[in-house]
Every structure is written in C-alpha cells, then in structure tokens.
Input
Amino acid sequence: MSKKFQLLLMGFVLLIISPSVIAVELAEHVQLHGFLTQGAFYTSDNNYNGQSDDSVSFDQTEIGLNIFWQANEKIDFSAQTLYRRAGAVENGDLRLDYGMMNINLFNNEDNYFGARLGRIKNPIGLYNETRDVAFTTPSILLPQSIYMDRSRSLFVSSDGAQLYSKHQIGDGWLSLKVNYGVPQNDNDEIMRTMFGDFAQGTLEADNAVFMGQIKYNFFSDKYIIALSYADVLLDYDTGPGDLLAAGSARFSPYILSVQYNGERISLTGEYYYAQNEFEDFGSYSPDYFPVTTNWYLQGTYRFSHKWQAVLRYDESYLNEDDKSGAIFEQVGLPAHMGFSKDWMIGMRWDIRPDLMLRGEYHNINGTSWLPYADNPDRNQTKQYWDLFSLQMSYRF
Amino acid sequence: MLKKGLYRFFLAPIRSLLALMLLLFVSNSYAVSIIVNESVSSSPASVKELRNIFTLQKRYWENGTKIHIFVFPDDDPLHRQFSKTVTKIFPHQYRRIWDRITFSGTGVAPITVYNLSEMLEKVGQTKNSIGYIEQPVDQQNIKIIDPELFQGNLNE
Output
C-alpha cells in the first residue's frame, strides 16, 4: 500500500467521522463546492489507470473545487479547478476545468436566452459536462463507446463562447446550446492511437471548433432525448526527423441520447456516429476516412435511496467497414484494436448524501479504447480481459 | 345468533384493526406546507410552477428577482414527502439535476438546512426565498402558500 494511498484513506476516514456539511456559503451571493474521488483498479490483462495488470493500481484521483458568484440579477461568474490523475495518461495536473461569465440576456416565464464567455463546458451526450464528478456519473468507467477517456481533453471544455436558450413546451423544456471555442489541445492519446510512437510532432486544434446540443426533457428529466454534434479539426505540426507530413484529422460525431428515469429504474441508451477524415499525412499514412459507430444500453435499479445496481452493454467499432480490425493486423498490430465489447455490472452505496462507495466488474473483448500511455506496446495487450474497480467519492 | 357471533369474533376485530391502521397511517404521513419570504409577491400558483422552481428551470420571480431555495437533506423524510407527493419528482431526480448544475458552473443548487428552526430562520431572513415545512406555523417574515393550490391534478 503506497504512502499516497494511506494518506487518502486517512482523509476519507476523517471525512466519514466529520459531520456532514453540504455546500459552503462564503457570503450571501458566493457558494463553494467540491469533490474528492479515489479509485482502485485491477485487471486480468492490459493496464487501465496505472499498472493494474495482475496488481491493484490506485492511480485514479480526482479533486475539484468550484466557486459560484452571483454578481447581480443578470450576471454570474463561476470557476472550477480540477486536480486529476489517471494512470500514465494524466500525471496529476492541476487545471482550470471551467471559468466563465454567464449573462442572462432575456427571460420570461417560458423562455430563457443567455451567453457564457470564457472556458466553457461542452455539451456532448448526457454526461460530458460533469464527466469528472463521480456523483453525477452512472459508473466508475463512463461508457467508453461515447465518452472515450482518450479523447476526453478534446471534448471536456473549450475557450470561447456559448449561446444557449430554453423554452417551456408542454410538460417539458427544449434547450439548445451552441459552443464555439478552442479545445484543451492535450491530444497525445489521440495522436498515439493514430500513429503510435513514430509521430514526432504535435496534433492541435489551431482554430475554434463547434460543439452543440439540442435536448428535450419531459417532466423534469423523467424522459430525456438529446442530439449532440461536434466538428473538430486538428492540424498536425511535424517534429524533427518526422516521417509524417503536416496533415490534418477531422472528427464530426453525432450522438443521440435517450434516457428514462423512473422511481426505481433508469434506462439509458446512446448512439455515436462519426465520420472521420485523416488526410495529407504523407506516404507513411495514406488518407483514411473511417466511419465510427458506437453505442451502449444501460439499466439502473434503485433498491433504496442508498443502494443501486447498474448493468450495461457497450460496443465500439473504430471503422464500421472493418469491424474485425484487419487494418491493424496489416501493419503488424493486434486486430482487437479495432473494436471493444464491454459487459459491465456494478453496485453503488450512498453511505450518506455526501459520501459514496461503488464497485464494478467489466468483461471486455477488444482494446479499441485502451489508453496508449498505460499500454505503449500494443502487441503485449490481450483481446479478452476483465476489469474490477472500486471507487469512493466525497462531495460538499 | 350466528350473525352476532360472526360480528363479535370476526368483523369487529377487523374493524378495529382497520381503524388502528388508518390512525397509524395518518400520524405517519406528513403534511407539507410551502413557505416563502414575505418579499415574494407572486408566489407559485401551481404544481408545475413549483416543479420548475425546484428543478431550477424557473430562476426568477415575476418581478425579475432571483429565487433562493432552501431544502432538507436528500434522505430527510419530509424532503422525500415533498419530492414525491407534492412535486411528483423523486429525490434522486432532484439530486441529479442539482449536481449537474452545481458542478458545471451553470447555477446554484438549493441550500440544504438541517432542522425546522434553521429552515424558518433562513426563509425568514433571505429575500425572495422559498422552502417548505411540515406544519403551518405563524412566523414573522414568512408567508405560507395555500396548500389547496398543490393538490389534485398534478398537471395543473
């Protein structure tokens, strides 16, 4: 057991015996919130969030602290800092997760219009805006078909502007969010997945990109239907002695999300369809235009307000016309990089409203979303693997 | 004779049992009163409006002032009663909506209070605020909203 983990464990014990306090109100119009999440991972083969292959890795820590200031009736400011460690993919960086000014441009009983400026969260699918906050996600690992950890930094937040509106229609609200901004540009995972070790340059979005969502929620989120869209263009700048040319990669996914929330049962399905373009990388990487199709179905059952179980099937194909991954085999890589089929079952225990413990088991066929940083030698990876995970989270 | 025996030994105990159950049921069920600060001039007039306020869809009163909300903890019996029977939204739905807003910087979740006196104190002191209590009380600076508005048709 590492020193760091013992410290975290002590921290949690202190939290458990401390009186429960949700939300800190600094002043009349200022609020402070935060969360602390620690995970443990064990895999039969392949590494996830650290060296988890046949050993236990504690390399998943997420600590967030946010502040919200209502400056006046029309304007508010908010910011969240995030410390995040996720295996070799992210080594404990402190980042500004969001930091924005919100202006309420117009509202009446049934219509709201507003704008957010600064570092804004991107509305992709049902979970992206709060994907690092354990309390708001259905499982320890988000369904990787839609919320690939590899492309997390590309979609998590952008520097730019968001226009939003919502309209009351019948017993529900129709909402629209349009984001235009420059993404975080920490795209090493994407680049390594595309080119492995022989890419010497950097892959970045030089210009602002578009991401948006239209959503209708009926009866206060009892039924949700949403369509998200993103159009992201990344340019490759070659490095010294690079075999690749200065090409570009374009991802334009559509995501359809449907959710039902009953008293005991929640059912969720999301479908991802993306046209991808990899162009002008030179003779070592011929132009390639794969269509990616991913989806998952998930059911949650609440036994009580403290206990719930979740079951999910999650499937991804990097190229719909090559479901078996033959293209990877042609270049000497394992074919199972082309797909993933993941059965998951988990339990969540809400010990207190502000303290939660959950565990889950994954039975996985394929390695398409396996992080590169934790598994640099793809030929060492196995097609069939199991993943066990435990996670504890506290929030205030 | 037979009828009388049947009544004494069979029907009468059942009747007493039913009466006892009814009594227990009544004493165990909570009444919920919606309260607002006296500064609120246009109190919510329907379940739908109440639901819009507590799910943070409606954030301003009619005069343009921002609404402040106070609630009891998620596992508090009165909160569960308020959620399920008054607004017809399960506590877990409220929590999911509030958490997403809190941790995406898009608003202020309701502030949690831990007992009746704290609820009365906060709603009494905070302009443009709303909360709920179990039994109507007579308190300075606080208005109780006519519970008739929130009974009957929930689609109102």
Notes: Residues 1-29 of chain B form one domain. The interface with chain A takes residues 48, 51-52, 55, 57-60, 62, 64-66, 73-75, 80, 87, 89-93, 95-97, 99-100, 102-109, 111-112, 155 of chain B (CB under 8 Å).
